[in-house]
Amino acid sequence: MSNEQDDDDELFLVEDAEEEAATQQAGRSWKIAIVDDDEDVHRTTCFALQYVHILNRPLEFIHTYSKSETRKVFASESDIAVVLLDVVMETEHAGLELVSFIRDELGWSDTRIILRTGQPGYAPEEEAIRDYDINDYKTKNELTRKKLLTSLTAAVRSYEQIRTIDASRRGLHQIISSSAAFTFEHGIQSFASGVITQIAALCGVPPEGLLCAQGELNEFDEEIPETFNVIASAGHYSNLMNCPIDDIHNARVRDALRHVLTNRESLFTDHSMTLYFSGRGNRPLAAFIDLPFSLSEINQHLLEVFCSNLGVCLDNLSLVNQLKNHAYRDQLLKLPNRLKFIEQISATLANELPGQMVALMDIDDFAEINDVLGHHYGDLILKAVADRLREKLGAPIFLARISGDVFGLLGSKELLEPETLKLMFVQPFTIAETAHAVSMSIGMVALEGYIGDGAEPLKDASIALKRTKIHQRGSCTLFTRSMGIEIRERATLMQHLHKAFDAERLFLMYQPQIDLETGKFTGLEALIRWRNDDGVLIPPNDFIPLAEYSGLIISLGAWVLRTACFMMVRLQKAGIAPQRMGVNVSVVQFRQDDFIAIVESALKDTGLQPENLELEITESVTMTSAILFESKLASLKKLGVKIAIDDFGTGFSSLSYLDKLPVDRLKIDRAFVNQIDTPEGPRIAELITQLGKKLGLQVIAEGVEHEAHWKTLAAMGCHEAQGFYIGRPMLEENLISWINLRK
To answer: For residue range 28-82, what is the model confidence (pLDDT) as tens digits?
Structure first.
C-alpha cells in the first residue's frame, strides 16, 4: 500500500488511461460544484470527468476557490446536485463551515456533499461524518478516476431520488392542502371555500354547488348555533352565501341538504350529489354539487373516502380551536393570556395607534394570601379582581392575565391613568362573606418609540412593576429609558463578571488590623477586587450584589476563602503572620447546605489552623433563619473558627438574640466612625463599644482614616481598628513590605 499523500497536487492515481469520448447531448445537466483553493484540483477533476454522462445527463461544473467566494456564488445558485468540497482552504475549518452554510443557511437538504481532503488530520473522518451533514468523505489520494466517478454517480443518483420523492410529496401536499393547511390557519370557512372546487375537480365536472355547515366554532370554544348556513358557494349558487338552509328557494337543493344532514349519509342522484362530512367531533357539514351525468359506483365510493378524510380534517379543526383556546386563553379567569397579550401589543404597534399604554397590575402580598388562606381563596381573589377590571375598564381596554397575580392592560393613556386604576380598588372585595381589601402595584410603559414585537414593551413594563414592588408597593412606576439602560448595564456587568472569574481577572487584597492600645499588628481582612480589561477597578459594591443575585458568589466565595487561607499559611511560614485572617461570607453562601464542608475543606487543604481564620458575617445573615444560623455557627465554633459580626449597627439584630450567639467580635461600620467628625460625634460607635464589652466581645472599627479617629476610638475602649490611616488594602508583595517596615 502506498503512503498517504498530503500534497493536493496528487489528486488522482490514474488507473484507467482510456478517456471516454462522446459528444455531449443537449438538454439538462447535473450541476457539480468544485470548491477547492487549488487550481490544479479543478483542472484535474474536470479532466477526469470530461465527456461523462450520469443518468443520461452531462455534467456542468461550477468553480469556487474560497469560503467567501463560495458563499457569494451559492447565494445566487440553485439545483446544485453535488458539491466536491475541500476541507482546508483559507482556514483549516473553512470546508466544514461551508457545510453548515449549505445545510443551515441555504437550506439545501437534498444537495449531496462529498468532503475531500489531502490533510485528513484537520477533519478526522469519524468526527466529520458524526458531526456534519456530509454524504461521503474521501482523501484525495484515494480518488482515482473510477472511484471519483463511482462516488459522483452514487451521489447524483441519491440526489435525483430525493428530488423525485420531494416532487411526489409536493404533489401529495397539493392534494391534501385544501383540507389540511388552511384548516389550521383560517378555520372552517376557508376550509369550505376550496371543498367545492376540489370535489368538482375530482369528478371532472364544473364547480357549481354550495356547502352548508352548523354555526362555526369560535376561538374560545363558545356555544355552537343550531342553525345551518351556506358557508361556501360557487357558480349560479353564489348568491346564497350565508343563507340559512330553510331560506333556500330551490326545493331540490333544500330537500337534499336536509335529507343528508338529518340522515347523516351522502345522497347521489342522476343530476346532483349531496355529500356528508362528519368526523368524531360530530359537527355535520354537507356539500351540494350539480352533475351533468350520474356518477359510477366506483366514483361514489371514492368520494365517500374523500368525505371521510375531510371529516378527519373537521376533527382537526375542532382540536386546533381547543389548542388555540388553551394556548391563548387563561382557563381560570377566561381572559387572554401572556401570549395573546404580546400578540395584541404587536398588532397595536403594527397599526401605529397613537397614545397607547401598557400597564401591569400586581396584587400585593398575593403569595402570603395563598399561603395563609389557601389557593382556593387566592383563586377567588383573582376572579374578583378580574371581574372588577372587566366591569370598570370595559371593551376599550384589552385585559389579560400575564402570570399568577399579574394582570396586563392595553389601551389609551386617558383610560389608563394611574389614579383611575388605583381608585378601582378602594372598595374592598367580599370574599367568602368577608371584606378583603386589595392593594395593587402598577408598572406602566408608553408604546411611543417601540416597533415590532410586543414582548419588548411588556418586558419594560415588568421592569417598572418590579421597581414599584421594591420601592413603594401600592403605587405606580412609569418606565423610563434610563431604567432600561440601567438594567442592560447590570446585565452586561454580570456577563463580564462571569468572564472575569473564568479568566482569573479577580484578585485579593489585604487590609491590616491593629490593636489600638499597643499598636500591634493583629489581623488581616481579605478583600476581593476586580480590574476590567481596560484596567479600571470595579467597586465591590457594584459587582458583589450581582454575584449574589446570579449565584456566582458560591464559587467566588469558595475561591476567596481558599486563597486567603493559603496567603495566611505563607505569612506564617515567613514568620510575619498576624493572629487571624478575616474573610467575608455572604448570606447566599451561608444558606448553602455544604457551607461547613467548604470551610473544613479549605482549612484541610491549606493546612491553616481554624483559630487563625475569622469569618465575617453581616447582620442580614443572622436574620435569615434563627435555627439555621445558630446550627451553622455552632458547627463553625466547634471547628475552632472565629466569628465576627460585620457592619454592626446597620441592621436590625435583636440584642437578646445577639447575646445568645457564639460570636467573637463586633465590627463598627465605617459610617459610625465617620460620624466622629460630625456634630453628632462618636455616640453610636461608643454605644457599640460598650455593648461589645458588656457581651464580652472584642470590638474593631472600620474606616479609621486619620489620627483623630484612632485617638477617639482608643479613648472609648475600642480594641482594634482598620482603615487608610493604618494601611490601605494591599497586594501580597506590598503587604509583606508593609509588615517588614513595621519591624
So the answer is: 689 999 999 989 899 999 998 988 999 888 999 999 999 999 999 999 998 899 9
Residues 72, 77, 79, 82, Cα dihedral to 10°:
-30
- Number of Cβ within 10 Å of residue 412's Cβ equals 14
Query: 521-554 as b/e, with b when 16 or more CB fall inside 10 Å?
Result: bbbbbbbbbbeeeeeeebeeeebbebbbeeebbb
> 587-601: per-residue pLDDT in tens?
888 888 899 999 999
Kind and range of the H or E element at 361?
strand 356-363
Of 191, 228, 233, the closest CA to residue 211 belongs to: 233
> Which residue type does 375 have?
H
Alpha-carbon distance 167 to 169, whole Å?
A: 5
Burial of 449 (0-12, 13-18, 19+ CB in 10 A): exposed
Collapsing DSSP to helix, strand or coil, 729 comes out as coil
Query: What is the C-alpha separation between 735 and 729, in angstroms, rounded?
Result: 8
Residue whose C-alpha is closest to residue 619's, from 654, 576, 582, 656: 654
Q: What is the mean pLDDT of each run of 10 residues along the chain (743 residues)?
A: 39 35 50 92 90 90 94 91 90 88 91 84 71 84 83 91 64 45 48 68 72 54 59 82 87 90 88 80 77 75 75 70 74 89 92 91 89 88 93 91 94 91 91 87 92 89 88 88 70 76 82 94 94 82 80 88 96 95 90 90 95 86 61 89 83 61 89 87 89 91 93 94 94 93 81
Angle between helices 540-550 and 552-573 (to 10 degrees): 120
Indicate if the alpha-carbon torsion angle 335, 340, 345, 348 is positive or negative: negative
**CB-based contact 366:469 (threshold 8 Å):** no
DSSP for 22-88 reads -PPPSS--EEEEEE-S-HHHHHHHHHHTTT-EETTEEEEEEEE-SHHHHHHHHHT---EEEEEEES-
Q: What's the rounded Cα separation, in Å, for the pair 338 and 315? A: 27
Distance of CA 294 to the CA centre of its chain: 60
Least Cα distance to 570 among 513, 524, 622 occurs for 524
**H helix or E strand, kind and range, residue 434:** strand 434-436
Place of cell 360557487: 234
The answer to whether 406 and 441 are in contact (CB under 8 A) is no
Compute φ and ψ for 33, nearest 5 degrees: -95, 125
Look at strands 136-139 and 406-412 and give their pairing: unpaired
End-to-end CA distance of the chain: 78
Task: Tell me the three state secondary structure of residue 109.
Answer: coil
